[in-house]
Amino acid sequence: DQQVKQNSPSLSVQEGRISILNCDYTNSMFDYFLWYKKYPAEGPTFLISISSIKDKNEDGRFTVFLNKSAKHLSLHIVPSQPGDSAVYFCAAILNSGGYQKVTFGTGTKLQVIP
Amino acid sequence: DGGITQSPKYLFRKEGQNVTLSCEQNLNHDAMYWYRQDPGQGLRLIYYSQIVNDFQKGDIAEGYSVSREKKESFPLTVTSAQKNPTAFYLCASTQGGYSSNTEAFFGQGTRLTVV
Questions:
Q1: For residue B95, which residues of chain A lie inside 8 Å, CB to CB?
Q2: What is the dihedral of CA A49, A50, A55, A60, to 10 degrees?
Q3: Would you call A89 and B42 a contact, using CB atoms and an 8 Å cutoff?
Q4: Which residues does chain B have with pLDDT short of 50?
Q5: H-helix or E-strand containing A89?
Q6: Residue A86: beta bridge partners?
Q7: B13 touches chain A (CB under 8 A)
Q8: Bond from prior residue into A79 cis (ω within 30 degrees of 0)
């Protein structure tokens, strides 16, 4: 039962254009959502997060949008740069009774073409 | 500097042998996690622990075991019962269930190869 899904395994974008990475989830009880960037054979690095009570969070070139009614979030990267090429994971955090669990999506490989 | 450390970075194991992957954090985090990544796939949760001496199975716990005797340490043992152990293993930690700090910190990973 995949509670967090990234339906696009890959995405190619021209340098300077907008990259939009999508993520869907099934559990309406998730409290926070996060985006991570990962290079091969390295640990993921944190990019940006959003609380379930908000609908937008922006940090530099990265903006995350949350649509709770659709159980959908997206990461926008503007403008896209070749160094953004990596695998991007969305993650959801559930806090329940003092317990915290992080669930990751399957990842989207972004290629930014110079 | 605070962080999370996995060792070794590369590990080779003969079939039929158990092997233990180390994960240590000095972030004073309560929750720790083990994930597995296979080529072209996402991060799948093996085990996680919220507090010392407590842990829960994730989605693919079969063939793995863990312990949480200390807050800082969450070692993962890949047993001979794990059918396809060759993979990239990632350890992570978060502050814990009542924290407003949501970021998960990751180690650099251990590449396990069964030979």
A1: 100
A2: -30
A3: yes
A4: none
A5: strand A86-96
A6: A110
A7: no
A8: yes
Query: Which among A66, A75, A78, A81 has a CA at the least distance from the CA of A31?
Result: A66
**Cβ atoms of A91 and A84 closer than 8 Å:** no
Structure tokens at A92: 């959801």
CA-derived radius of gyration, chain B: 13
Rounded distance between C-alpha atoms, residue A41 and residue B109, angstroms: 7
pLDDT in tens, A50-100: 999 999 999 999 999 999 999 999 999 999 999 999 999 999 988 777 677
Question: Can you read off the two tokens belonging to residue A22?
Answer: 């999508």
Q: Are A76 and A18 in contact (CB under 8 A)?
A: yes
What span, in angstroms and rounded, lies between the C-alpha atoms of B50 and B45? 14
- Stretch 22-61 of chain A: residues touching chain B, C-beta under 8 Å: 31-32, 34, 36, 41-46, 49, 51
A83 touches chain B (CB under 8 A): no
State the count of interchain CB pairs (< 8 A) between A and B. 74
